[in-house]
What we know:
By secondary structure, the chain is mostly helical. The protein contains four helices and no strands. α2 (25-32) packs across α3 (36-44). The longest helix is centred in the first third of the chain and has 14 residues, at 7-20. The radius of gyration is 13 Å and the shape is globular.
Amino acid sequence: MERELTHEELREEAHRLAKDNSRAYTEIAEEIDVTKSAVAKAMTTTGPKFQRLRIRIVELLSDAEVGPRETFLLTD
């Protein structure tokens, strides 16, 4: 199954997976070699800033493969 997620939906998915898997931020951070603080920010900060980290979290906690997709619209 394939679905598109917004930055916010990706954040929510990472948060849901962490909660469903009963994984502490510290545990997740150790497995993907980042700080607990970075994981916490990725889970709570909206917008694209932590997108790559959220992708890594979702891929760690699920069987899904996440491919980044960005679109820019330039109008005159």
